[in-house]
Amino acid sequence: MIRHSLRLIVDGASDLEVVGEAGTGEGAVAKAVELRPDVVLMDIRMPGGDGIEATRRITSELPGTRVVVLSMFELDEYVHAALQAGASGFLLKDAEPDRLVDAVRRTHTGESLFAPSILTRLVEHYLGRSMPKATSALLTERETEVLTLIGRGLSNQEITHTLTISMGTAKTHIGNLLAKLQARDRAQLVIAAYERGLVTTPHPT
């Protein structure tokens, strides 16, 4: 029933198309390998292997495919496990249809999506522990500004407005950050911002 609802929502967008469905973790991996989708909407709890393990296998085998994890819960261990598995975002299943469609689009372009409450909890998690050693890559002043805003959960458009730069310039800086910090996607840039101490207070989106 949930998959049917998700299909209706995604297929209702003129620029998106559902190319496959699966009801188990193993099935999700097999379908992803077969169809090579741009974005996978992944449930946390499924028979035949949970969504976290399926996410790990998909992101490992298909570096061009991004995964958005969906869950009824915002438990910290789910969020952290999803990120460690390579997920590019984490949304609650009760998200509004427009936000879900926006998540698919933005994830495809390299952004990461988190429900506001989840982003706040993620920040609090990193602030409440000793920081891992951050990469020693040298960043320019502008790159540091962009990374800080990414850590606060701002979208590309919000970054352009905040720094008064063009979208192309913002994307160039983000591309440089991904390369310098050896980050797979924007979700890992968020974590890098916390590791570098650029985000010091929870900043709800």
From TrEMBL:
Domain Response regulatory: 1-108
Coiled-coil annotated spans: none
Residues modified to 4-aspartylphosphate: D43
CDD domains hit by this protein: LuxR_C_like, REC_NarL-like
Keywords: DNA-binding, Phosphoprotein, Transcription, Transcription regulation
Residue stretches making up the HTH luxR-type domain: 132-197
PANTHER family: TRANSCRIPTIONAL REGULATORY PROTEIN NARL-RELATED (PTHR43214:SF24), TWO-COMPONENT RESPONSE REGULATOR (PTHR43214)
Protein name as annotated: Response regulator transcription factor
Source species: Kribbella yunnanensis
